[in-house]
Design brief:
198 residues, alpha+beta, Aminopeptidase, 8-stranded mixed sheet, 5 helices, 8 strands, globular
């Protein structure tokens, strides 16, 4: 699963270490569905992609994150972004976030396999004891997707963040802990089988 130079490879996707070389492709990917218009998410506008990538690279330099561009094997196209972030190394805790995908690959194998690759890397290589997920209270699609992975809801942080449009975000926090990982891994592999031709 872990390839050369930090690539994470699966049957459907390749997670490539994020770089400025991905700027044109990510700007195209985010325009598929105009994802920045989702008021409850933090997807960058195509015009803001350079700053978005730079912020991710800066977090990597501080040892807080590992950011990836998501390449869909079927088309060869870059279709989104994801990140291992808020890495608390002393406490062996990390978050998966900053995830978005082009509209055309949503509800495909892309998210399931990307999460399998990231979770495998977090638990089996980085040796974390907990992986966290956070999302907006009103982002029902994200909440369902996180629960479908096998994560358990830890709680809701009320009035957690002020958003750019002036609204206040309640953040729902989920996690998977190391003792749950073997069962979650098996379930994700089963979920992936539904995308394979019979």
């Amino acid at each position: 699963m872990v390839g050369q130079e930090g690539y994470l490879s699966g049957e459907y996707v390749i997670l490539e270490p994020l770089s400025m070389d991905h700027l044109p492709a990510l700007s195209l990917a985010v325009a598929d569905g105009e994802l920045w218009n989702l008021w409850y998410s933090r997807v960058p506008h195509a015009d803001d992609m350079k700053g978005y990538i730079q912020a991710a690279l800066d977090a990597e330099q501080r040892g807080e994150a590992l950011a990836y561009a998501v390449r869909y094997r079927e088309s060869g196209a870059i279709v989104g972004c994801t990140r291992l972030c808020h890495w608390d190394q002393p406490n062996r805790h990390i978050e998966i976030g900053y995830t978005w995908y082009s509209k055309s690959v949503q509800r495909s194998a892309v998210n399931t396999e990307s999460k399998l690759l990231l979770l495998s890397y977090a638990f089996e290589t980085l040796d974390v004891i907990a992986v966290e997920f956070r999302t907006h209270f009103h982002n029902e699609a994200s909440r369902q997707a996180i629960a479908r992975l096998g994560a358990k809801q830890d709680g809701i942080l009320r009035n957690h963040q002020l958003l750019k449009d002036g609204t206040v975000r309640d953040t729902v926090v989920y996690s998977i802990i190391d003792s749950e990982w073997p069962e979650v891994k098996s379930n994700l592999k089963l979920l992936l089988q539904q995308y394979q031709p019979q």
